[in-house]
Amino acid sequence: MTKRKQDLLETIFFPLPAIILVALMIYIPFVLSGYYSFTRWNGIAKDPEWVGLRNFINIFSGNTDFFKTLSFTFRYTVFFMIFTNIIALFLAMALVNKFRLANLLRGVFFIPYVMSMIIVGFLWQFIFTSGFDTLYKMTGWGLFNWSWLGTPKMAGISVIVVGIWQSLGFYMVLYIAGFESMPSDVLEAATVDGATGWIRMKNVILPLLAPSISTCMFMSLTNSLKLYDIVQSLTRGGPAGSTVTVTVGIYRDAFQSNRYGLGAAESLLFFIIILVLTQIVNRVFKPEV
Predict the structure, then answer these.
(1) Using CA atoms, how far apart are residues 50 and 41, in angstroms rounded to an integer?
(2) Is it the case that residue 9 has pLDDT exceeding 80?
(3) Rounded distance, CA 209 to CA 201, Å?
(4) Which residues lie closer than 8 Å to 157 by C-beta, 6 or more apart?
(5) What are phi and psi for residue 241, nearest 5 degrees?
(6) At the N or C end, where does the chain have fewer CB atoms within 10 A?
(7) From the centroid of its chain, how far is CA 49?
(8) What is the pLDDT of residue 66?
């Protein structure tokens, strides 16, 4: 066998197992989901009934809760992206400095991220009920007597707070990496030139931090749009369905109501929405080369 044929065979067969696995786990289910979105199927019948665009018509005519769940998902995403990145950025600025407890505090802020989101949801469910009730009796502060999970508005805020708390350490670490990769000579030159405070932050630090900001904004967008675990364990979509996200709604339609065709149609629409949003965010926050 010639060297050229051997290289060709290696190029074909070495990545073949990975290609087959990815196709079986991602591409084939995606194509099948597109097919099922045009059918009525309960997940049991042998032959799905072809209904054309009826599932999409039901979605856009308001016969489903898709746009209601999409509205809450968008609100969560906006608040999550803004507050997570701002808080993580300021934490990174504080912890990038060398002081005695810096490494300990980095670990403390990162611990929630490695915890299971299901456990985080149950933990905060206990805090919002029994924990805050005990603190209210001890302090008398009205903040701890609010119905954090009992009203639609407060339940939505609770989900946002828990989501930010759980993910904060991850984005903080990314920003710390960005700060530590900055060239020290540029920062020193800016200080010598008299750039201090907000001017130094705006004209020197933020441009150098652009790759980290772009990465964090993109990842916070994708992570917030696919929110599922915290909602299921913290509020279960309540009260009155006010905290049901798109992913939870799709799960309920497909696997609890046995409307697999409708769930597939909602999944396809959500995929298109995510695709558009990620392209917009990438263009807006793309670092200049």
Answers:
(1) 9
(2) no
(3) 10
(4) 148
(5) 70, 15
(6) C
(7) 35
(8) 94
Residue 215 identity:
T
Residue 267 in tokens: 């999944």
Q: Is 195 helix (H, G, I), strand (E, B) or coil?
A: coil
* Superfamily of domain covering 63-244+274-284: MetI-like (1.10.3720.10)
Q: Are 130 and 137 in contact (CB under 8 A)?
A: no
Q: Torsions phi, psi of 40, nearest 5?
A: -110, 115
pLDDT of 288 > 70? The answer is no
- For residues 255 and 248, give the distance between their C-alpha atoms in angstroms, rounded to a whole number: 10
Question: Residue 281 has which token pair?
Answer: 């965010």
Give the C-alpha separation, 183 to 186, whole Å.
Answer: 6
Q: How far apart are CA 259 and CA 253, in angstroms?
A: 5
Q: How large is the C-alpha radius of gyration of the chain?
A: 24
Q: Which amino acid is at 276?
A: V
pLDDT of 180 over the 70 cut: yes
pTM for the whole thing?
0.90
Alpha-carbon distance values, 145 to 23, 124, 165, 237, 270 (Å): 52, 15, 21, 22, 37
Between CA 269 and CA 51 the distance in angstroms is 17
The yes-or-no verdict on residue 131 having pLDDT over 60 is yes
Q: Which alpha helices (DSSP H) does 51-98 contain, by range?
A: 54-60, 66-95
Of 245, 248, 249, 243, give the one whose Cα is nearest residue 152: 243
